User: Which sequence fits this backbone?
């Protein structure tokens, strides 16, 4: 079967029992898994492996692009993995397939919770789904000892080749949690059909007329009759009426300032509308304080009189104001906060941050970074990473007058730190 230039794809059969992913490019300086379910897969691998040297070797092979096309079938991952000398080995990773009774419990539980169904159809796996599955006696995510290896290199346990395949699988899981469900035995089309069938009939002991929670009904999405498509977001902001009349406005109305404020309000309304219509995001709007709002307006390139008034009201040195404007343009209110404030992340955020740091530097380089609150500083104190509330890493470099942002925020800490080598 020829490898495709992009993936994934299904073979030309009338079922959905196999996915084939084309080889991925090298992955230097990025985490293999960003999603929580991808990280759970990596944890199961690393907790199972008996040889830390083998883990490091497999990590290097996966990062170098040594894993060929990956075939995903019920209970089995298969790929050819190249050694550093160019030799290839057929490698398989095995995971227990659910039996009929286990699938019945899992599908029954998911169909009763419309939010779980909606998440799966959006190719997401909420924590609650895995927790509810475990409570129903079906461990959806692998745990220690669940990932078994077979490799023609002759190793009796996980070797560098099977480890590389597992790391590569974490990248695939990030893209699509249905990879895990297929490994457990059921492809996407079959699973969706089963959920839709269960969603169309009342549960045992209920009648078809029984009421349901309105929020869950709304979340059910494609299991219900489709709603009319929303109006598209305008390609450009609305054409505002001209304030240029033959007579001057009465004091203290300033026509130029009023026109600018109306234009920025229209642009913000359009941004919030686009965010609300995005299929993968629930918009959140937090009112801004005086300083962030003034910086937001300055970043919109106001007329000179308005810019002068805003600059005077902020009372910042030119270099500090330039840093605030850059932070706003890169990350909005979150960018301003990470520039000005230091805070202690919650334990869950710290756990995710440590996992991302450890994965980005397989050689243990991350352990050299010294943490203070949401800031990780390199020995020598010249480079620093700052974590924002959205889980992004901001690169900072020391300047004569303090820390200065060195580039745009990144999802991968190693990539962010590398930006401090240049001017960002």
Assistant:
């Amino acid at each position: 079967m020829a490898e495709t230039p992009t993936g994934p794809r299904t073979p030309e059969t009338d079922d959905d029992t196999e996915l084939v992913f084309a080889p991925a490019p090298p992955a230097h300086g990025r985490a293999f898994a960003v999603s929580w379910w991808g990280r759970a897969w990596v944890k199961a691998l690393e907790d199972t492996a008996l040889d830390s040297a083998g883990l490091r070797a497999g990590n290097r092979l996966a990062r170098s692009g040594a894993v060929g096309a990956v075939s995903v079938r019920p209970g089995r991952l298969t790929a050819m993995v190249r050694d550093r000398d160019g030799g290839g080995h057929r490698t398989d990773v095995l995971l227990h397939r659910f039996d009929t009774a286990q699938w019945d419990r899992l599908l029954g539980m998911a169909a009763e919770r419309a939010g779980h169904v909606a998440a799966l159809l959006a190719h997401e796996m909420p924590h609650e789904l895995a927790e509810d599955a475990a409570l129903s006696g079906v461990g959806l995510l692998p745990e220690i000892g669940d990932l078994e290896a077979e490799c023609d290199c002759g190793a009796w346990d996980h070797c560098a080749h099977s480890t590389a395949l597992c790391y590569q699988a974490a990248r695939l899981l990030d893209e699509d949690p249905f990879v895990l469900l297929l490994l457990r035995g059921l492809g996407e089309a079959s699973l969706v059909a089963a959920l839709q069938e269960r969603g169309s009939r009342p549960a045992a002991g209920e009648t078809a007329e029984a009421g349901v929670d309105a929020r869950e009904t709304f979340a059910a999405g494609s299991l219900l009759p489709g709603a009319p498509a929303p109006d598209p977001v305008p390609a450009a902001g609305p054409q505002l009426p001209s304030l240029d009349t033959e007579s001057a406005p009465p004091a203290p109305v300033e026509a130029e300032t009023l026109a600018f404020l109306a234009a920025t309000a229209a642009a913000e309304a359009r941004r919030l509308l686009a965010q609300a219509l995005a299929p993968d995001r629930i918009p959140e709007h937090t009112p801004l304080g005086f300083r962030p709002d003034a910086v937001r307006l300055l970043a919109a390139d106001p007329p000179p009189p308005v810019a002068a008034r805003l600059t005077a009201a902020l009372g910042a040195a030119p270099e500090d104001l330039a840093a605030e404007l850059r932070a706003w343009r890169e990350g909005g209110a979150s960018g301003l906060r990470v520039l000005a404030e230091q805070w202690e992340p919650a334990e869950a955020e710290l756990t995710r941050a440590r996992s991302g740091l450890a994965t980005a530097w397989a050689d243990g380089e991350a352990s050299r970074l010294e943490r203070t609150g949401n800031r990780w500083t390199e020995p020598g104190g010249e480079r620093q990473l700052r974590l924002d509330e959205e889980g992004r890493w901001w690169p900072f470099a020391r300047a004569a007058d303090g820390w200065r942002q060195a580039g745009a925020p990144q999802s991968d800490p190693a990539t962010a730190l590398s930006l401090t080598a240049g001017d960002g």
About this structure: The longest strand covers residues 76-82.
